[in-house]
## 1
Amino acid sequence: MPQIFHPSMNTISRATIFGAVFILAVLIWLMMTIVRSPYVSGVGVIRSQPVPFSHEHHVAEAGIDCRYCHTSVEQSSFAGIPPTQTCMNCHSQLWTESPMLEPVRASYQKDKPLVWNRVHDLPDFAYFYHNIHVERGVACTTCHGQLAEMPLTWKTSTLYMEWCLECHRDPEKRIGPLAAVFASAGVPSPIISFEPHADWKNARCALLTNCSVCHH
Amino acid sequence: MTTGTKDDTNSDSLLSREHSFASVTDKIASIVLARRLKRGWIVGLLISFALTMLLFLSVAWLFAKGVGIWGIAIPVAWGFAIVNFVWWVGIGHAGTLISAILLLLKQEWRTSINRFAEAMTLFAVACAALFPLLHLGRPQFFYWMAPYPSTMGVWPQFRSPLIWDFFAVGTYATASLLFWYVGLIPDLATLRDRSKRRFPQVAYGILAMGWRGSARHWRRYQDAYLLLAALATPLVVSVHSVVSFDFATGIVPGWHSTVFPPYFVAGAIYSGFAMVLTIAIPLRAAYGLRDFITDRHLDNMAKVMLASGLIVAYGYLTETFTAWYSGHESEWFSVVNRATGPYAFLFWLLIACNIVIPQLLWFANVRRNVYALFALSLVINLGMWLERFIIVVVSLHKDFLPSSWDIYVPTFWDWSTFIGTIGLFTALMFLFIRLLPVISIFEMREMVEESHGESS
């Protein structure tokens, strides 16, 4: 009876058995890497906006506090996107002829709000409250990065659940003094001078990883 | 049977003495290697294939519209999907029992039925595994049940029976597939060596993984096969126990019972053997395999069925007694509701199918009559399906709160999905019969050796 296979088949079949395991492992690794890459998470990706707004200019150079525009950050779940009126407070006097600001003036005259593209968009089943985080000493820069150095805006955190849990499981490492929450330069990390809020030392801290804390 | 004629002795042995190594190999291998397709096979496959298409259609419609196309609604949120899941998983158990436990117990009569019983296990598990996935509502996220480094940063909920099911059925499918495949290797080599055309030679050759039948091969093979049998053995008990936890860990009256795991396992073996008979009887008639799957095989299977059926009956009794003895109003109500409520007809049909009619198996005449056995196997299949329907639907439709009581009525899509999986199962079975040896050739050759040894 003639041979069906060439003798090289011995080597090939052994390689295939190893290869199957190897390929499977690599495939899983690849998927886990891709899902965490900027391509999927959007970290570091600049989104186009109707007006090329620069946080760097307004925060670092003009020295405007975060809360001047994001007014509701201390009272509400939503930090707030400023109405055109807020822009015009200054820009009715400054750079009134700038072509870059034309959409802002048009919006003001026609009374039609600017449509900004959201950079930080959480899924609707996760309920995030800015007020409680700010109140507990989570600095703006902890999640949003060094906005004072961003000529255009991008996100520096994935907003994935594992990212939320990183802090919810061990909040002490990322909580700073309340006075430093709105510091534009951000708080040095890790924070050594952390003085625990009274609540952190009691049982409520353990509740932070309950499903219903974020998924009501 | 001391005064039996020659025919009697033949029908009572596991393998006729006229068979030699060559005749056994010829007979079984020829089913696969024959060029022509039998007309019955073509018709059977076509019908099964059409039903499989019905399954695909139902699944596509389900993905498009969601689980609302089924009859499920609160309080009966489980419905057909879970009924069919438990039914199919249960059917699979006979294959593992035959191949693993009977092997370890050195029951020789398993030899000619283990191969297709294992195939039946695999196909039944495939059908079963579909249902929880379809029932998820968002089936595209089924992989969330697997523990992998997800971006959610949490493990699956290991306290949830759904996760237990995932692991139980996953382990079961993997172990059954391995066991089946390892058992096939020497036979695949036989087919490789016997086929005359290039394509089957290469296909069977690749699958045979270079099997040459040397003494060293056999030695290792025996070790591996025994080890796998030992690994598969606990699965016979564990898988359906875990499936029963889906119910037993709930507090619904009619579910919350410690008798569930053993009684589910007995039920699984009961329905599994019924399905083996449902397949074996037409199979041996169509391919003239009466020499291999003898009346004694059928007789033995009927006895196993009778024994496991009695355990199931005992389970019903215990369940009823416990409900009464608990003194719990809701528990007792669920028993009364089964027997006299809106689904009472199905309950009494279940008692008839699973307990009353199978008592005929006490009679040797019935066990030796293929028509009666075939009919009984169908009756038991139906009975076991009804049992799961009663457990799932009748327990749920009237739970603690009378204000939420409702009647569950399956829709067209419930039925089409169920019948579709039967089509998928039979289609896979038809393909298996044509592409792989339905009876283990090398183990039958061992039987020849032994039967000749006895006679000399």
## 2
Amino acid sequence: MDIFSDLVMGLSIAITPINMLYLLIGALVGMIVGVIPGFGPSAGLAILLPVTFGMDPIGAIMMLAAIYYGAMYGGTITSILLNTPGESATVASTFDGFPLAKKGRAGPALVMQAVASFVGGTVGVILITILAPLFSQVSRSFGPPEYFLLAMMGMLTLIVMIGTNWKLGIISALIGFALGTVGVDLETGQGRYTFGSAELIGGIYFIPIAIGLFGLGELFYAFYSGLHKTGTGGIIQYDKESRFWPTAQDYISTRWTMARHSVLGFVVGVIPGAGATIASLMAYSTERSLSKHPERFGQGEMAGLVAPETANNAASSGAMIPLLTLGIPGSASTAVLLAAFLLWGLRPGPLFMEQNPELAWGLIASMYLGNMALLAISIFAIPLFVQMIKVPYRILGPAVVVICTLGTFSVHASFIETYLMFAAGIVGFFMRLYGFSPAALVLALVLGPLAEEALRQTLTISRGSFGIFLDRPASLWIIGVTIVLVLILPLMGRIGGSAGKAEKAGG
Amino acid sequence: MTELQDNWASRLRAGAIGVAVAAPLALGGAAFAQSYPSADETLDWTIAFGPGGGNDIMARTIIDILDTYDLYPGDIAAENRAGGSGAVGWGYLFAQAGSGYGISTTSGSFVTTPLQADTPWQPADFTPVALLATDDLVLVVNGSSDIQDIGQFIEYAQSNPVTIAGTGTVNVDFIVPTLFAQAAGFEFEYVSFNSMADQTTALLSDSVDAMVGNPGEILGLIDSGDLRPLVYSGASTPAALGDVPTMGDVGYDIGVSMPRGLILAPDAPAEAQEWWIATMQQVVQTPEWAEYISSNTLTPTVLYGEEFRTFLTNTQNGFAEVLRSVGAID
């Protein structure tokens, strides 16, 4: 078959010693930028881009791409160990990742996230290899109406987040929506709550808020409950009884989770602008709807970690489709990759793969190798990260403050964002103390502006008619899937016998 | 704001990085006859946006040319000072008033950010060196559209109100179609997006009728026939767009474009300004510069010194007038 000869050609280009070295450097850098909270792949890529100017384009693009998908591996480590998402696509991984670590299963959680990342990433590349032309059609059927519906689907996760204490949950989400209104109104160009500050024109970026609420808030709470006096362990208990490696049960119970969310994550990733963050959130809420034990989610359920982890890696592969087949970047990170293509005088677009087969297939082939390298690096690095838990909390705590501060400042070199991060830390402590939901706040901050803008674009286009959602086939598909997810699946769960447990899930 | 909606062109704001380009001493240049520039002073080159964006590419292209032709005798330290849509970087340059060794490149936000926020500086405050090029826009429709040329588009738009997508509102993307529609006598709804990627997806999915954008980012889709270019807003159409007419060619010249130029700190010494004008006259003659203009599909528009200052003031006044009329700014 044609694809295989292309892939073999790509492999022959990728497997030169120098290109392999670039690939490994990229994978390592990606892991590292992923681990540092706030310092996500787009910032890492943008900073390293000038370094690649003198390099051969194939090696450079392989390296930059490895930074991009490598960050998805690293981003989860702090989600699990510190309850601080390393970047936006790993917020959902804190929901069950951190409870798992609290239960003493940090080691298995880290290994499983690496395995899930590998499966998601690799299935993603396989799908790129065989179905790129088909999926480019998916990329081009999404407009503002579909983005609005997707954001609504993402908000279903909010219901899960809000949980049983629904009053406090709703207040948390409303604070998030309110913060999301800051910035220049996209449609009229008027500043909203910017108070004339140039720093606020772009709105409140969600990374400083997430780092403050989760990272610092958790830390302050730990000090409040006197953990620094206990000397060892900190928030997370490291249980020597439970082994480092995941049990066979962990693999068996999540095998279908991985399969499902590799495909789901990839499809969402293919849609420009939706990307890994929405994919991971959708995976989490879908997995919870499908689960026989929805009540275990949020308490340290392995499937609740594996689902978003598989999906965000598959989505980062999927996001290469619009980039390679249409020249449209699906996320901030792929936008930097596009900038790199343009810098080398390439012309991304529908003819890109035809005109530059060596580059396109070299890149795809390198993604197979890169994912394998990242799995190996992760497994080797995990024991090092687990050591972190043994550091006495009075030492670990201040170190976390420094990491959070540096991570926030490094994103945009902004003092205002750093102050926001500290303010969010204090707010996060009180939210934790009184049972509010920081996760709902962050989700609302992410999805609110997206939904608002897409809805206003949609209504401008349709001149105020909501009928547009029913006129477009892609919209109808999303509505259909949402109905299945919200109504039919939980209903089936109830009929399936575990009525009492499912009741709680509706919460 | 989230990763999902980042406008990559303006928000690739990363931490500052310093790249020192050591330029060897110019041998026998005019530089020795004057006190400016001194080889002992490091040129502090501010890039007000992150790496990889349009402003960054232009600054590094000029620095490369200065280096290749030994035009600047001292060291050049280029630093990305991103943030606040350029407010941070140009604010840093503004604070160096009186110095001849602070320099920066401009782009659209140089004009629009002061209109949106209380920046302490205005474009006319800086010492102008040269306008080197302008960013202009192409109006495109979906390749599957029945509309084949700009005449048909105007005719269609006059009887059916159309939707045109662009990036942002306080932006040339909004101003160009607004002025063009006024001149050509049609009405449209402007649909504002956060990035070129979002608006391109909207057009490809047939959500909007047309869009405006810089040709550089969509040439691939134009080549493949997925997008059909109708009209170009600059003074002359770039070669890559073939025989697409300009707005002037079809009789509706609007005369608005985004300035890409070079500025020094406010009140820089006159000899510094003169030296840079003379140097940039050499830079724009190089083949590397011609390559930069064509690969980024810019319109070469060159104005020096005070003429550049007048151009900036006129552009900003024109923008403010249109934006005020629609209520986008006070």
